[in-house]
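in:
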């Protein structure tokens, strides 16, 4: 009887975790404010490009937290560079800084 109860509890916990994981959708976009520079990160676009593989960026490039400020553009430069996987950062400031808040020579 204890064995049956333990299996029932385990199944309930596992089922609950699966349902929670499916409901926990990442934000469509994130806006970071750092040193007067607003950076818009289109999370949905990046998720689609990586075919849902969160581990491509998390946690080796970025923490999986929306509360931490974007300290630098080092993680961005992994893909956003000349001949990288996405558009080069240089000359495309408005892609991530739509309000024109990026300053020449300042990395976000």
């Amino acid at each position: 009887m204890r064995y049956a109860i333990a299996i029932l509890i385990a199944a309930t916990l596992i089922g609950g975790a699966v349902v929670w994981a499916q409901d926990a959708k990442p934000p469509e976009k994130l806006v970071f404010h750092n040193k007067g520079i607003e950076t818009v990160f289109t999370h949905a676009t990046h998720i689609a490009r990586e075919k849902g593989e969160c581990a491509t960026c998390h946690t080796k490039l970025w923490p999986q937290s929306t509360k931490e400020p974007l300290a630098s553009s080092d993680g961005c430069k992994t893909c956003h560079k000349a001949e990288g996987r996405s558009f080069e950062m240089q000359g495309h400031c408005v892609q991530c800084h739509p309000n024109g808040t990026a300053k020449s020579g300042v990395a976000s």
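note: The radius of gyration is 19 Å.
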